[in-house]
Amino acid sequence: MTTQKETRNDRNDRNETAENGQGRISRRRLLGTAGAAGATGLALGAAGGTAVHAATASPATALNTLGSTGVPFHGERQPGITTPLQARGHLIAFDLAPGAGRKEAAALLRRWSRLAAEVMAGRPAGDGDTGVALDAGPSSLTVTFGLGRTFFDRTDLTARRPAALDPLPAFSSDRLDPKRSDGDLWVQIGADDGLVAFHALRAVQRSAGDTARVRWQMNGFNRSPGATRSPMTSRNLMGQVDGTNNPKPSDPDFDRRIFVPAEGEAAQGDAAWMAGGSYAVVRRIRMLLDDWEKLPLDGQEEVIGRRKSDGAPLTGGSETTPLALDKTGPDGKLVIPANAHARISAPEANGGAAMLRRPFSFHDGIGPDGTVDAGLLFVCWQADPLRGFVPVQRKLDRGDALSAFIRHEASGLFAVPGGAREGEYVGQRLLES
C-alpha cells in the first residue's frame, strides 16, 4: 500500500521494477546514485572479477565508477586525446554528399557537437533515441571530430588548409586500401562500455542525415578497466606491452609536442583556427599473427627489444627504465638489436620526435586467405605530423624487425580542431570566419 509520504517518482520506480519482474533499478534512481558510487566503485575495481559479478547480479545496484565516470565535451581541447584509453572504440570516416558544401558542413558539425555533449553526459540522443544506453551512465564516453584534407576542397576552404595536412609519404610496408583510407570528416568514439559506444556511433551516423555518407568504419577494443590487479600499460594482440614511453601530460614539453599552440609562429596565418587542436594519424595495421606466434619467446623479444613479461628493456630494469642503447653482451653484440622496434622508434634515436599513441586493437574474423584478420587501429596525436609520425615511420620503414610481421592496410590524416566552448561547435572558428 502506498503511504502519503511516497512521491510520484517513488511509485513510478516501484511500478517499473514490478513490471520488469526482474528487480531492475530505474534509470532515474540508477543515475541518482552515481555520486555515491564513486567511493564504493574503487573497492569494486580493486576486488576483481568476483566482486563485479556479485554487483551485476544484484537486483538493485548503483552505478560503479566504470559507469559513472563522465568526460566533459566543452573545453579548450577536444576530448578523446588525453583521455585514458577506453575499453571500446569506433573510428568512422564520412564524405560530404554531392552538393553539400560549407553551409551544410557547418550545420552538420553543429548538430554533431550538440549531440556529443548530450550523450557524453549520459543523456539520450534527442528525439528518436534508440534506447541502447538507457540503463548506463556516461562510461567515460568521448566523441572527437576531425577534418580530412579533402574537406577543404569540398567546402571551398583550400586557402585555409594547414600545411600539416599535406599527404603522408608512401612507405614500403604500405598495402593501403583507398576505400578504407582518408575521408572528408573523421569521428573517434571511445567508451568503457560497448553499448554506450555503439549508442553514440548510431547517433552520429543517424545525425549525418543526407549531408554526409559513411566512407569507412573500424571497430576496436582494449583491456577493460579493472581487469588487472593494478593499473598498467595495455598489451596488443601480439601480447606485447604497447604504449611504453608515451609522452605524459606532466612532461614540460607535452603541450608543445601534442597540441597546436594558441600563440606563436605555428598558430599564425591560415592555420590560426587550429590553435589548441592536434593532428591525428590513423593507420589500420594488420598483424601477421600466424607468423608471429611461430617465433620463440626470445625471438619475439629481440624483434621488439623488450621483455614480453613486463615490457622492460632487454638491457634490464622495469618498463619505465630508459633503453641502454649502447649496452653490449659478452659476445660484443648489442643487447637491444640494431633493428629492434624499441630502438628504432625511440625518441632519442629520432631527434626527439614524439607522438601520443592512443590505439585500439581489432579482430575482424578470418580473411579470404584463411588467416586471422586482426591487429592494431593505430591512432597517434601530434602538433605536426611532419615532425612526429613521419620521421619515425620513415626510420621504421628502413629497417624495423617488426615490419616482417605487420602490414599497413589503411591510412588517414586529420586536423582535429580545438575544443568547443559552451554554445559553440567544433570547427566554428574555421567555418564562420
From TrEMBL:
<dbReference type="InterPro" id="IPR006311">
    <property type="entry name" value="TAT_signal"/>
</dbReference>
<keyword id="KW-0732">Signal</keyword>
<keyword id="KW-0560">Oxidoreductase</keyword>
<dbReference type="Pfam" id="PF20628">
    <property type="entry name" value="Dyp_perox_C"/>
</dbReference>
<comment type="similarity">
    <text>Belongs to the DyP-type peroxidase family.</text>
</comment>
<dbReference type="InterPro" id="IPR006313">
    <property type="entry name" value="EfeB/EfeN"/>
</dbReference>
<feature type="region of interest" description="Disordered">
    <location>
        <begin position="1"/>
        <end position="29"/>
    </location>
</feature>
<dbReference type="InterPro" id="IPR011008">
    <property type="entry name" value="Dimeric_a/b-barrel"/>
</dbReference>
<keyword id="KW-0575">Peroxidase</keyword>
<protein>
    <recommendedName>
        <fullName>Deferrochelatase</fullName>
        <ecNumber>1.11.1.-</ecNumber>
    </recommendedName>
</protein>
<keyword id="KW-0408">Iron</keyword>
<feature type="region of interest" description="Disordered">
    <location>
        <begin position="220"/>
        <end position="254"/>
    </location>
</feature>
<keyword id="KW-0456">Lyase</keyword>
<feature type="compositionally biased region" description="Polar residues">
    <location>
        <begin position="220"/>
        <end position="248"/>
    </location>
</feature>
<feature type="compositionally biased region" description="Basic and acidic residues">
    <location>
        <begin position="1"/>
        <end position="17"/>
    </location>
</feature>
<feature type="region of interest" description="Disordered">
    <location>
        <begin position="307"/>
        <end position="329"/>
    </location>
</feature>
<dbReference type="InterPro" id="IPR048327">
    <property type="entry name" value="Dyp_perox_N"/>
</dbReference>
<keyword id="KW-0349">Heme</keyword>
<comment type="function">
    <text>Involved in the recovery of exogenous heme iron. Extracts iron from heme while preserving the protoporphyrin ring intact.</text>
</comment>
<feature type="domain" description="Dyp-type peroxidase N-terminal">
    <location>
        <begin position="78"/>
        <end position="222"/>
    </location>
</feature>
<dbReference type="InterPro" id="IPR048328">
    <property type="entry name" value="Dyp_perox_C"/>
</dbReference>
<feature type="domain" description="Dyp-type peroxidase C-terminal">
    <location>
        <begin position="233"/>
        <end position="420"/>
    </location>
</feature>
<dbReference type="InterPro" id="IPR006314">
    <property type="entry name" value="Dyp_peroxidase"/>
</dbReference>
<keyword id="KW-0479">Metal-binding</keyword>
<dbReference type="Pfam" id="PF04261">
    <property type="entry name" value="Dyp_perox_N"/>
</dbReference>
